[in-house]
């Protein structure tokens, strides 16, 4: 396995000590990636039952049925115990729970630890990106927060299928540490200094995946899917550029790559939820039928607020928010998008 020693901390032989906050599908899978890369990994979870099963049976049947986890991964519900001496603190809980959860753990996160956000959402009410929420909740500089985002459906990675990701941070040392800590023969990180762009890609693609799901649930075919994905990427790019992102991020893994994976895969919770809505379920019914966290439900609202605040037009996001939260019938969604004033293609 590749080397994941903590050379930047001046301990060339010590493995990186990583703590993953959250024992859901992605937290558990990322813990497996870190362990396969040579890190010393502990998962902190809320469920005693899930933690016990990870420790004793090396499985998490609630979130990753049928997957055998590395035996070295430990799991506990005791946050202080988990976080003591951590070099990396990886946050893998739903975006809207991040501030409250991290504020409560603030005193347990060691000084100097690099904090990694795996979350793909924008906070309701504040419209903050997750790295901003992490930094505010823990009282740390944003340079200590690194983001990992890409075409990373948990189940496929838990099966060790090959994929790549983007590790984004403003501090080159912290970014390199995280990239080294999660590099395995099946998981290839690319670094990027554009935290804003990478985070917006991850959050908004969930909303676009809901839109694609709705279209497919309504019975529309691949022309509609391709139209929503392509114009969805335009929306993401427009918002990103207004917020200072780098244009090169959007056709990359965190942008087009993740959009393609999420909009195409039946494993995606956002896509699945959209399909249920398109097929006629209510939002509550669709959430229950989907299971897991479909971040696009809440982020459709916060992304739209962010867009309004910056004068950015995001018609697909607006239509998703209208269907999910304002009672717009799904049948009206396509019409509301296609009837807009005609314009030239492009941003
Ligand atoms: N599943 C994926 O394929 C995937 C891939 C990339 C990124 N993500 C992102 O990672 C984040 C987590 O996703 P997931 O798939 O692990 O979700 P999940 O629904 O499978 O698990 C979420 C976990 O967080 C826990 N949790 C919920 N509220 C909590 C709180 N207040 N405090 C502590 N723990 C809490 C739950 O108990 C659960 O263990 C999301 O932002 C998601 O968009 C997921
Ligand atoms: O299951 P989803 O819709 O949350 O998507 C999972 C990942 O974000 C795909 O990269």
TrEMBL record:
Active-site residues per Swiss-Prot or TrEMBL entry:
205 (proton acceptor)
Residues of the Glycerol-3-phosphate dehydrogenase NAD-dependent N-terminal domain: 19-172
Question: What superkingdom heads the lineage?
Answer: Bacteria
Binding-site list for sn-glycerol 3-phosphate: 120, 150, 205, 258, 268-270
Where, by residue number, does NADPH bind? 26, 46, 120, 154, 269, 295
The subcellular localization recorded is: Cytoplasm
Pathway(s) annotated for this protein in UniProt: Membrane lipid metabolism; glycerophospholipid metabolism
Annotated residues that bind substrate are located at 120, 269-270
Molecular-function GO term, any one? NAD binding
One GO term (biological process): phospholipid biosynthetic process
- Cite the Pfam families for this sequence: NAD_Gly3P_dh_C, NAD_Gly3P_dh_N
Q: Which residues bind NAD(+)?
A: 22-27, 154, 269
- Pull one GO CC term from this UniProt entry: cytosol
Ranges for domain Glycerol-3-phosphate dehydrogenase NAD-dependent C-terminal come to 194-333
Identify the main location.
cytoplasm
InterPro entries (UniProt xref): 6-PGluconate_DH-like_C_sf (IPR008927), 6PGD_dom2 (IPR013328), G3P_DH_NAD-dep (IPR006168), G3P_DH_NAD-dep_C (IPR006109), G3P_DH_NAD-dep_N (IPR011128), NAD(P)-bd_dom_sf (IPR036291)
- EC id: 1.1.1.94
Q: Sorted alphabetically, which keywords does the UniProt record give?
A: Cytoplasm, Lipid biosynthesis, Lipid metabolism, NAD, NADP, Nucleotide-binding, Oxidoreductase, Phospholipid biosynthesis, Phospholipid metabolism
Q: Which family does it belong to?
A: Belongs to the NAD-dependent glycerol-3-phosphate dehydrogenase family.
Q: What does this protein do?
A: Catalyzes the reduction of the glycolytic intermediate dihydroxyacetone phosphate (DHAP) to sn-glycerol 3-phosphate (G3P), the key precursor for phospholipid synthesis.
What name does the UniProt record give this protein? Answer: Glycerol-3-phosphate dehydrogenase [NAD(P)+]
């Amino acid at each position: 396995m590749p080397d994941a020693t903590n050379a930047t901390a001046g301990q060339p032989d010590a493995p990186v000590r990583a703590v993953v906050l959250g024992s859901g599908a992605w937290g558990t899978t990322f813990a497996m990636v870190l362990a396969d890369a040579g890190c010393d990994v502990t998962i902190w979870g809320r469920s005693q039952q899930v933690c016990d099963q990870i420790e004793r049976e090396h499985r998490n049947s609630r979130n990753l049925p049928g997957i055998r986890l590395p035996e070295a991964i430990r799991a506990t519900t005791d946050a202080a115990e988990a976080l003591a001496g951590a070099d990396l603190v990886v946050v893998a809980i739903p975006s809207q729970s991040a501030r409250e959860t991290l504020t409560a753990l603030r005193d347990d996160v060691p000084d100097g630890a690099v904090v990694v956000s795996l979350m793909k959402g924008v906070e309701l009410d504040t419209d903050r990106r997750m790295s901003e929420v992490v930094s505010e909740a823990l009282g740390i500089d944003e340079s200590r927060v690194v983001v990992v985002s890409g075409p990373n459906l948990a189940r496929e990675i838990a099966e060790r299928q090959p994929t790549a990701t983007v590790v984004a941070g403003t501090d080159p040392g912290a970014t390199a540490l995280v990239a080294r800590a999660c590099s395995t023969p099946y998981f290839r990180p690319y670094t990027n200094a554009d935290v804003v762009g990478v985070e917006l890609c991850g959050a908004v693609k969930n909303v676009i995946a809901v839109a694609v799901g709705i279209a497919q649930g309504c019975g529309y075919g691949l022309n509609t899917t391709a139209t929503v994905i392509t114009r969805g990427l335009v929306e993401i790019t427009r918002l990103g550029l207004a917020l200072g992102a780098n244009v090169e991020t959007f056709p990359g893994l965190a942008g087009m790559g993740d959009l393609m994976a999420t909009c195409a895969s039946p494993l995606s919770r956002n896509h699945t939820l959209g399909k249920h809505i398109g097929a006629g379920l209510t939002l509550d019914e669709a959430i229950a039928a989907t299971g897991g966290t479909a971040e696009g439900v809440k982020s459709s609202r916060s992304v739209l607020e962010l867009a309004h605040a910056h004068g950015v037009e995001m018609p697909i996001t607006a239509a998703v928010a209208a269907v999910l939260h304002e009672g717009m019938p799904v049948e009206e969604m396509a019409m509301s998008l296609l009837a807009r004033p005609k314009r030239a293609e492009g941003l």
